[in-house]
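Below is how a single chain appears once it has passed through the pipeline. First comes the sequence as given, then the structure the pipeline wrote out for it. We keep one example in the README because the format questions we get most often are answered faster by looking than by reading.
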Amino acid sequence: MTKITFMGAGSSVFAKNVLGDCMCTDSLKDVHIALYDIDGVRLAESMHMIKVLNANINNGRAKITSHLGVEKRKEALRDANFVVNAIQVGGYDPSTIVDFEIPKKYGLRQTIADTIGIGGIFRALRTIPVMWDFARDMEQVCPNAWLLNYTNPMSALTGAMLRHTGVKTVGLCHSVQVCSKSLLETLGMKFDEKTVRNKIAGINHMGWLLEITQDGKDLYPEIKVLAKKKITEWRKAGAEKNGNMIRLAMMQHFGYYITESSEHMAEYVPYWIKKQYPGLIEEFNIPLDEYPRRCISQIEGWKKRSKEIVDNPNLTHEKTHEYGSVIMNAIVTDVPAQIGGNVLNNGLISNLPDEAVVEVPCLVDSNGIQGCYVGRLPEQCAALNRTNINVHLLTIEAAATLKKEHIYHAAMLDPHTSAELTLDEIKKMCDEMIKAHGNMMPKYK
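Resulting structure:
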């Protein structure tokens, strides 16, 4: 029997998406699903939900078990074939609050703070030690399992696993699947998934839509004409704004559309959130402090939504665009599939560092997950990727060595942070954040 262990199963909505997809897949119906979390209330909610889903869409064929707390972690992982990672270390309170409020004291504003930037760095430093604990257990009790990592910061966490453990790991995101659709619909163009083809490569949250065609026709010329017109209209004072303005503007300047949303992209580069140009925030519709707002909204709305999901005896599910079940099915059945995955570069993108984690097309079959060769990115695209890769690599170095200086280095090389603060301010801010996070991070020297 195939075993799927879900780490961070208290994330009920995401657990429903990934595990519901599995139950809708013929080769994965007769599975053992092990749910693991350190929050007993949320784990119980997800356990109830998955049992209902199993009965309603899977005729009760899956075996469901729950495992609470660190002392039950090995039990949850034992003999797993696939481990899905969806944890968030520190949660909204206190960690996300620290990630936003201390930088704000220094005049450094953020939108999401989960990928790079000062918030992304510290999220990684909280999470990597926990994932290395998972890895040590996996090496003992399920050494052949694949870890499907959905947790951010994707590149830093996946890189930490691939470079410092023996666990087979792939990083998975949602942005590749919806990239072309978001672009065409933003511009009022028709999207047809049967005829639109694309090629995407780069790094997580800054992958590049290198090609987009429909029935073999290159759509980029029409896209760029429409984008220029739309951006010109939306930038006018008092005009109705659009949520994709940063992505379209970056395409205007660098030639290619980006996989991740504008609120993310705004904090990955030094051009948009600037103290000396505050008007850019309104002009380009940049939602500062967006992630804390989402957290508060989700916390407040969960009681109502939990009744719709957790307490719904008629709960059902339709397959999502998540790659998890696609990967598992391809490995179990040896029927090949293609995904967009995050893997060690090792020459797949020839003008990015080998030790970087890149997001590229991957072939999946019974041999596992193999990244496909891409070659060179357009140099301006690779150059922007490298500015983010610098932060990924130094964050991993900090976690591996426990040297505080590498935390400083990661922050000093971060594009947004370095554009706004002096070196002394960055160091002081990092020290304050290290202290504020307390036991959520290991001791640094």
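The longest strand covers residues 206-214.

See the next section for the split statistics.
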